[in-house]
Each structure stands twice: as structure tokens, then as C-alpha cells.
């Protein structure tokens, strides 16, 4: 199975969009803006077929993400527009920096304008917030990961944006990795947790290739049980809402009992505490806010 975090951004974009999800998203965007009527404002005016250039620029500093979507967007809207990027996804941009140019009939520039800016702003906002978390966690080496708290229909693009910001892609969905969470385990008596998980993990691995197998724990007592699982079955343990002191203890337990198992911290992570969490020695930090709480970057289009 492809390593999503070892791929270049262009290769990752191709992989994440080859399932047709991008085309479906853009067709839905086109339908909600144009329905079966079209742009009635532009159609009412004369001279809208003249050649024009739409200059896309950042109104504030940030990290760029989503430029790779533009060629598919102009195609989905059935235009003859050409998009010329002036930056790359993953680049840091300054305020008023030009990110790209749309060239073609004015009417067509206007018809794709808002959808293009919506996508660029949303994805660049995610990339920018991710970069802030990555920098805030430094110099500790913990990977900053996203979660499944994504916008329906935009998951693959939002995960791509996290990579643009220097973050790490977690699982794509429920289909490519195993994560036993608290609600999966609530019915299991504590003394049987490790045995039940061993049986479940063997069954999961027998079903086909997986990116990883992970178990969530809420307490150090649960972690102690989980670390006794047979070597090689478990890849990661998710430490949910643990204090910094508990995270330090969890790392010591892992290093002693199962040094090959990765530890991931999650819950209540902020820009103010992410460095302390990383310095506790965990390998990964997952942050739902990267996607569900990112503010869109202010990006504009001016017609020349």
C-alpha cells in the first residue's frame, strides 16, 4: 500500500483524486452555482466574450494549497480557460503575492471565480494552520496528523492540504486502516482487553493490506494491557486526552514494554500546548482542528 507521507505533493494529489472524488465535488459545485440556468448576471451584459485575465492573489500571508485543483475546475465548468500558476502548493506566500492567472473569455473567468477562490481559500487555510502547529511543536520530532473531522466531499483535498502545510496524513477512511476506539472497546472487561484485541487484530489483518493497526486508550491501566499484545500485531496506540505527566509515563511504559509501537497523542491539542505534548516523547499528535477549525485564507481574483 502506498506510503502517503513519502510521496511528493504532485504524486499525492494524483493518488488522492484518481477515484473521481474531485470531479464529483466540482460537478456539485457547478450545479449549485449554475443549476440548469447558468450565470444570469453575466448573460445579461454585452462584451462578456472579450479576452480577460483574472489575477489570483493572496491578501494575507500563509501557505498555499489547492492550485492543483484549478485545471480540473476549468474543465468541470466546461470553459476554455487556461490557468497559469505563479506558485506551488506547499509554498509560503506573502500578502499581495500573485498565485496564478486565469486567461480566457471574461464570462468564463467570472463563472469559475467564486468556486476557485472558495477551494483555494479553504485548502490554504488548512495548510497555513497546519504549518503553525508544525512550527509550534518544533524542535520535537512528533508528526502532526489530521483526523476524519473533514468536510463531506472534501476529505481527500483537505488531507492533501495538511500535507501541503508540512503535516502527516492519517488514515483516509474506515477502509484502509484499523483504529479501535473507546466505543469499540466499551463492552470489553478490562481483564480481557488484550486477548480480545489480539483476536480482532488477527481477523483484521487477515482481511487484506492495512496502513496500520491502532488502539485508543484513555488510561495508563489500559495502555499497560494493550502493550502486552503479541509483538508485530499492533502498530500504534492512541493516547486520548492524557495529561502531560501521563504522556511522559506512557512513553516510559512503551519504551520498556514495546519499543516498536508508536504513540499518538490526541485531544485538547492547541498551539499553546503542542510543544509540551511533543516533548513528552510521543511519535504523533493528531489534531481535528486542522480541518474542522481552520479559517480560510483570504484570496482574491482581480480581472485585468
How would you briefly describe this protein structure?
The protein is of the alpha/beta class and 304 residues long. It has helices spanning 9-17, 21-34, 40-43, 70-76, 106-137, 155-164, 182-185, 193-206, 220-226, 244-257, 274-279, 289-292; strands at residues 51-58, 62-63, 82-85, 92-93, 98-105, 143-145, 178-180, 213-217, 236-240, 262-266, 284-286, 299-303. The protein has 2 domains: 9-135 and 294-303, Aldehyde Oxidoreductase, domain 3 (Alpha-Beta Complex), CATH 3.90.1170; 137-292, TIM Barrel, CATH 3.20.20.70.
Report on the architecture of this protein.
With 304 residues, this protein is α/β, with parallel strands linked by helices. The chain has 2 domains: 9-135 and 294-303, Aldehyde Oxidoreductase, domain 3 (Alpha-Beta Complex), CATH 3.90.1170; 137-292, TIM Barrel (Alpha-Beta Barrel), CATH 3.20.20.70. It contains 12 helices and 12 strands. The protein has helices at 9-17, 21-34, 40-43, 70-76, 106-137, 155-164, 182-185, 193-206, 220-226, 244-257, 274-279, 289-292, and strands at residues 51-58, 62-63, 82-85, 92-93, 98-105, 143-145, 178-180, 213-217, 236-240, 262-266, 284-286, 299-303. The strands form 3 sheets. It has a 6-stranded parallel beta sheet. Helix 9 links the parallel strand 8 and strand 9 (236-240). Helix 1 runs antiparallel to helix 6 and helix 5 crosses helix 6 (155-164). It is elongated. It starts with 8 loop residues before the first helix and ends with a strand.
Amino acid at each position: 500500500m502506498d506510503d502517503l507521507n513519502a510521496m511528493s505533493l504532485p504524486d499525492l494529489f494524483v493518488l488522492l483524486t484518481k477515484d473521481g472524488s474531485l470531479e464529483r465535488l466540482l460537478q456539485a459545485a457547478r450545479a449549485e452555482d449554475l443549476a440548469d440556468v447558468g450565470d444570469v448576471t453575466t448573460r445579461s451584459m454585452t462584451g462578456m466574450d472579450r479576452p480577460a485575465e483574472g489575477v489570483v492573489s493572496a491578501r494575507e500571508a500563509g501557505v498555499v494549497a489547492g492550485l492543483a485543483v484549478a485545471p480540473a475546475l476549468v474543465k468541470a465548468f466546461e470553459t476554455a480557460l487556461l490557468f497559469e500558476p505563479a506558485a506551488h502548493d506547499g509554498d509560503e506566500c506573502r500578502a499581495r503575492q500573485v498565485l496564478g492567472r486565469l486567461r480566457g473569455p471574461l464570462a468564463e473567468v467570472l463563472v469559475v471565480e467564486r468556486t476557485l477562490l472558495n477551494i483555494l481559500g479553504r485548502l490554504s487555510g488548512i495548510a497555513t494552520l497546519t504549518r503553525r502547529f508544525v512550527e509550534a511543536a518544533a524542535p520535537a520530532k512528533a508528526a502532526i496528523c489530521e483526523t476524519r473531522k473533514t468536510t463531506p466531499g472534501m476529505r481527500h483535498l483537505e488531507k492533501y492540504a495538511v500535507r501541503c502545510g508540512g503535516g502527516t496524513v492519517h488514515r483516509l477512511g474506515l477502509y484502509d486502516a484499523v483504529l479501535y476506539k473507546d466505543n469499540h472497546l466499551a463492552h470489553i472487561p478490562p481483564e480481557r482487553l488484550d486477548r480480545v484485541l489480539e483476536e480482532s487484530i488477527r481477523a483484521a489483518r487477515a482481511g487484506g493490506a492495512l496502513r496500520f493497526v491502532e488502539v485508543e486508550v484513555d488510561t495508563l491501566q489500559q495502555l499497560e494491557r494493550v502493550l502486552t499484545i503479541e509483538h508485530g500485531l499492533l502498530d500504534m496506540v492512541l493516547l486520548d486526552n492524557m495529561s502531560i505527566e501521563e504522556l511522559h509515563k506512557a512513553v516510559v511504559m512503551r519504551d520498556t514494554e514495546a519499543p516498536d509501537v508508536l504513540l499518538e497523542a490526541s485531544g485538547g491539542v492547541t498551539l499553546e500546548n503542542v510543544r509540551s505534548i511533543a516533548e513528552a516523547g510521543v511519535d504523533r499528535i493528531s489534531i481535528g482542528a486542522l480541518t474542522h477549525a481552520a479559517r480560510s485564507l483570504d484570496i482574491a481574483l482581480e480581472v485585468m
